[in-house]
Amino acid sequence: MKIRLLSTAMLAGLAFASAANAQEFDDRWYIAAGTGMNFQASDRGTEDAPFATFGVGRFISPEWSLDGELNYQNPSMDADADLNWSQYGISLDLRRHFLGEGRSWNPYAVMGLGYQRSEEEYDAFPSPDSPGEREDGSFAAKAGFGMQGDVGRVGIRTELAYRADFDDQSVAATDKDWFGDILASVGVVVPLGPEPVAEVAPAPAPAAPNCADLDDDGDGVNNCDDRCPDSQAGQTIGPDGCPVPVSIDLKGVNFDFDKSTLRPDAVAILSEAVQILQRYPDLNVEVAGHTDLCGSDAYNQSLSERRANAVYDYLTSNGIGSNRLVGPNGYGESRPLESTPQTNPECRSETNRRTELNVQN
């Protein structure tokens, strides 16, 4: 009968635990309460009886939990149901949980040490103080196994254990030094406090801006490559971020021999020069006219001035302020780009018959 009851209790506990979630490491304190059947050692002369437990504990690691537990049972005597035999105690129970990823239940082994207090009534006839009563305490040890899982907020624990009670003062069994009881129970585990929340890793500090992505002075050159971080808007900037002289190539603004009128090709080049000067409003230039080596110095001086005036007038008539233009200046034949004889026709050099714009710093 005892074996049948024990098997029934364990199967019920297994079915309950199999629906529970695997125990995860949760270091909150919890309370545990249980009830079950105490299958008494036959030498005690007592009936099997239900028992109850209440304890407090916590997981000290993902696999280990430690509980302090109180227990109570009050079986009837076999010989005389009117006589009481009650027992209560305290134990410290260590459980080793065998966790498995993805399992809905987890088995464990339990070991416990404690103290059991016995209150045994016995027939003391013919004494007028009958029934007599013995009160005594003894050391106890427990070992067993069980299963545990979670059902929502609470846990389910089912357990089968053997408890050795080293009670050597029993009236019913004076020749026994200890008794072995079998405990089968099902209980609940209720964590205390709010459910722990996984720590959220702090947001990584924003990465320091990469100099390659910055252009503090707005010159189009990133800070990594910018050797002149204080360049001003409107300046012509080189690949190193530093201002560079603007070179306006007007060597193509040439004139026919002994002429100061602008040719169509010269007008096209001057139109580009106007666009450059408009793009860089801080840029000032000198308008400088030149001649080849043909003719007298005085004549060539006058001719170079007329050529400079032709370019100057074109620039101002197309929106370039005269305050940005130095000149017009004529340099005659004093600055040839090409060295030629002064005799005609060898002196005729279109390269020397020109007007230039010289950038002013």
UniProtKB/TrEMBL annotation:
GO cellular component term, pick one: pore complex
A molecular function (GO) term: calcium ion binding
Feature: compositional bias, Polar residues: 337-346
Biased composition (Basic and acidic residues): 347-361
Region feature Disordered, mapped onto this chain: 324-361
Entries under Pfam families matching the protein: OMP_b-brl, OmpA
Keywords for the protein's UniProt record, in alphabetical order: Cell outer membrane, Ion transport, Membrane, Porin, Signal, Transmembrane, Transmembrane beta strand, Transport
Domain of life: Bacteria
One of the GO biological process terms: monoatomic ion transport
Sequence ranges assigned to domain OmpA-like in this UniProt record: 242-361
Bilayer topology term: Multi-pass membrane protein
Signal peptide per UniProt: 1-22
Protein localization: Cell outer membrane
Protein name: OmpA-OmpF porin, OOP family
